[in-house]
Write a structure and sequence with these properties.
By secondary structure, the protein is an alpha+beta fold. Helix content is 52%, strand content 11%. It contains seven helices and four strands; from the N terminus they run ααααβααβββα. Bound molecules: FE2/S2 (inorganic) cluster. Its EC number is 1.12.1.3.
Amino acid sequence: MANSISSKFDRACIILDKYDRSPSKLIPILQDIQAEYKYLPEEIMTFISVALDISPSTVYGVATFYAHFTLEPKGKHVIKICDGTACHVKKSEGILNALEKDLGLNKNNKTTKDMMFTLETVACLGACGLAPAVVVDEKVHGLMTPEKTLALLDSIKKEELDNVQ
Ligand code: FES
């Protein structure tokens, strides 16, 4: 346990050093921290505030101001359903409902208990010609239907099972 805790902070230290522990580099530091941990863990935020000698409220202020930062742990696979106008008109809601039902998730509960999947809705992805669009782990899938999206989800689940066996 002690090891995993120290290695957790070691990774934050490497990122801090990369930016010369400069308070003016807070945003890129937080971006790297999020890339490393997939979210901004509370204890790491506190650690950064001490290391950079800036107040925790400043660190939290930046982290909550930018929409791409997240303070919640996310699942291994992040599925984003576009709910911009073009996708909405082409029934993106049906895709969201099908995924929520399959994964047992809802608006207040976006990550599965096994931390395998996180479901999010996002504003226009800039791929309206492909509406309705779904992004799975940064890859855009266009012209989706609930059936196609569930098939995609099944293939990810199967891949995960194969990895375990
Ligand atoms: S509205 Fe979905 S990609 Fe533009």
